[in-house]
Amino acid sequence: METILVLTHVDESGSALTKASLEAVTAGVELARQLSAALTIGILGPASAEAANSAAGAVAAPGARLLAVSGEAFAQPRYATDAAGCEALCRAAQASIVLAPGSSRFVRVAAGVAHRLGGFLDTHITSLSSNDCVDATRWFYRQRVEATISREARPWFLLLDAGTHAAFAAEPATAQVEAVDVTLPTTRTTVEGLRSPMRDAQTIRPDAQLLFVAGAGWTKKQPDGQIHVAEAGQLILAFLRLSGASLGSSKSLADQKAEGPGEEQSVLPFLSHMNQIGQTGATPRHAKGLSTCCHGEEPHVVGWRFVGERRAISLDQNCGWTRGKADVVYITDAFQVIAKVNELLQARRS
Ligand SMILES: Cc1cc2nc3c(=O)[nH]c(=O)nc-3n(C[C@H](O)[C@H](O)[C@H](O)COP(=O)(O)OP(=O)(O)OC[C@H]3O[C@@H](n4cnc5c(N)ncnc54)[C@H](O)[C@@H]3O)c2cc1C
């Protein structure tokens, strides 16, 4: 008989669970139902009744528990304290299966915690199912090979990829939280604060509804015989600011370097290989994707595998997108379209 623990943590506000944590709660509820297993949810955070209340609906069944480690030590991610907190939650829950979001906070500590518990860890899990045994799936080799993993060893830790489950949503209720004591280790790391890049500089936004992909066409000679890279940069950044979209890039564009002293700098300075989508790039999960000035070559499009509705803007009516790779293709000039869309988004905003 399995016992399932879902490890969760709060977001930067300290009063709500992260979206990825709520996705892990959904996975836990579904797996517990399939296995008729007891479900425990563990929360790591400074002290948050509100965060606990948002997960209360998941532990309404008899035997289900809600555990929390709290205190200022858990206000900020830090290996020593987070590992101690997660270890205490796991020992209190006595779980055979531990699910957790694959967030940077938990990715950092999960292997250490699994080791302390004498357990095993698998990462990048995209789905869970059970018949006689529990099966977990994950992708290998740039999302081309999907594997199904099952293990007899327990406790079994599974880090779930974000965007693979719906976020748990139930009416908040007053949660009965069991406080779990933690013996805090001596800490050598003091978190003094957070410095985040400006919203414009942070172009990779995994939670965005829309993926906006820029291709090399933005830097090519246009019908007037000139290149318009500065204008392209302004249009793309304005679109990202107004729409909140995440920025992706084709390899050809990410590879292009500006000439002169800043040779290591991309021709569009806000772009790096981190933005690259495809065979040798990322495979993000967004509800919608809009490709602009990109040809839709297969090695690029494999990175669109998990993108829901796909649209593309290209001047070339024979581009790859028109051959069944997009739902809608606009054969037109992306400079003009994006300028107009930005104008409309700006008007809607003001
Ligand atoms: C082993 C291997 C791995 C690869 N891995 C990747 C990968 O991971 N990711 C990746 O992206 N690529 C990858 N590639 C490269 C890939 O095959 C393509 O070469 C690349 O994606 C093409 O980039 P692009 O479409 O931006 O540029 P181009 O092929 O140059 O296309 C530019 C497009 O812009 C259009 N255009 C120009 N001006 C405008 C305008 N004003 N309005 C609208 N459209 C306009 C043109 O019509 C053209 O269709 C890989 C290739 C190989 C061999």
Give the key terms.
350 residues, alpha/beta, Rossmann fold, five-stranded parallel beta sheet, 15 strands, 22% strand, binds flavin-adenine dinucleotide
Note the topology.
Blueprint: E1 3-9, H1 19-35, E2 38-44, H2 49-55, E3 65-69, H3 79-93, E4 97-101, H4 104-116, E5 120-125, E6 127-130, E7 134-140, E8 145-149, E9 156-160, E10 178-179, E11 210-214, H5 229-243, E12 246-249, H6 251-255, E13 288-292, H7 298-301, E14 309-314, E15 328-331, H8 334-349
Parallel strand pairs: 1-2, 1-4, 2-3, 3-10, 4-9, 5-9, 11-12, 11-13, 13-14, 14-15
Antiparallel strand pairs: 6-7, 7-8
Helix pairs in contact: 3-4, 5-8
The protein binds flavin-adenine dinucleotide.
Flavin-adenine dinucleotide (FAD) is lined by residues 215-217, 220, 222, 250-253, 276-281, 293-295, 297, 299-300, 313-316, 319, 333-335.
Walk me through what this model shows.
There is one protein chain. The longest helix is centred in the N-terminal third of the chain and has 17 residues. The relative contact order is 0.11. This protein has 2 domains: 177 residues, Rossmann fold, CATH 3.40.50.620; 140 residues, Rossmann fold (3-Layer(aba) Sandwich). It has 350 residues and is α/β, with parallel strands linked by helices. α7 links the parallel β13 and β14. It has 8 helices and 15 strands. The strands form 3 sheets. The chain has a 7-stranded parallel beta sheet, sandwiched between helices. A 5-stranded parallel beta sheet has the order 12-11-13-14-15. Strands 6-7-8 form a 3-stranded antiparallel beta sheet. α5 runs parallel beside α8. The site of flavin-adenine dinucleotide has 29 residues, from α6, α7, β14 and α8. Flavin-adenine dinucleotide (FAD) binds next to α6, α7, β14 and α8.
